[in-house]
Amino acid sequence: IDLRASGSRFAAGKKHVIDEPAPIFSIAHKSAENGRGLLVPNPYFLDPSWWANYTRSVMAFAMMRPWHSRRTAVLMRGACGPASFERLGVLKLPEFTNASRYDFGIVSKAGPYKNIEDCIEKGMKDSSTEAEIARVKSRIMPKMPLEDFSRYRYVLHMPGSVTNSYSRNLQHLFMQGVIVLVWQSDAVEFYYPLLRHRVHIMSVNASTLEATVEELESSPRLRETLLAGGDFVARHVLSSWFLFARWDALLHPLRQLQTG
């Protein structure tokens, strides 16, 4: 970890400026090339000990739902927000209107909108027909508890609705015993470089999603690889030990630099 590369200038009010570069922490970068700051676990992991207990309980619950009993549909739930054009764009496509295969839904709004309908209309008015807007509005649904995600075989993770960057939902998916489909995005969190396509996740976009699901349904070996990979991410990559290790890798050298 290059501490110097994370430097930034800080201003405290209008009169006080620190001219020397100082390390800053960041929970995500919009892209690997343009990101600044030392990547740290986002605050939604809460306390590492709490996260460990939470992970164990969710995984134990998910194990009570065997693969053969789960819905074959791809699940996606999300919010409509200022930068939710990715998910709105998918929802308006006619090839994804089959709810038995693509169980997609908008469950809330984020940002300065009166309601979900208002968010959809303002987000789509310049790029969509009235029929497409109506199609997306038909996917407004109640919120789904995370424990119900394990009723499905496949879950689609989309970029965040507020900035089209990271979304904290991803860290909750690997413990559900599902195959995680991740929408292609430049956003980066601290653990993203450890995720491998066709090992831990399936990377998809609008042109590959349909074929990817068909391949998964027809390839038991690929499914087994991805289920094992997702389990590894939940138990090790996102373990409490790894969270501690990440913070220690950052704070220990910073502490040494401060003490001279």
Describe this structure in words.
- The protein is α/β, with parallel strands linked by helices and 260 residues long.
- It has helices at residues 48-62, 85-91, 116-124, 130-137, 170-173, 209-218, 220-237, 240-259; strands spanning 7-12, 16-23, 25-26, 38-39, 71-80, 102-109, 152-157, 179-183, 202-204.
- The strands form 3 sheets. The chain has a 5-stranded parallel sheet with strand order 6-5-7-8-9.
- Strand 1 (7-12) and strand 2 (16-23) form a beta hairpin.
- The model is unreliable at 1-18 (pLDDT under 50).
Short characterization:
The chain has 260 residues and is an alpha/beta fold.
End-to-end Cα distance: 19 Å
Largest sheet: 5 strands, parallel
Helices and strands, in N-to-C order?
A: EEEEHEHEHHEHEEHHH
- Secondary structure tally: strands: 9
Strand content is: 15-25%
Strand order of the largest sheet: 6-5-7-8-9
How many distinct helices? 8
Radius of gyration over all CA atoms, rounded: 20 Å
Low-confidence stretches: 1-18
Question: Structural class per helix/strand content?
Answer: alpha/beta
The helix fraction, in percent, is 25-40%
> Averaging pLDDT over every residue, what do you get?
88
Shape: globular
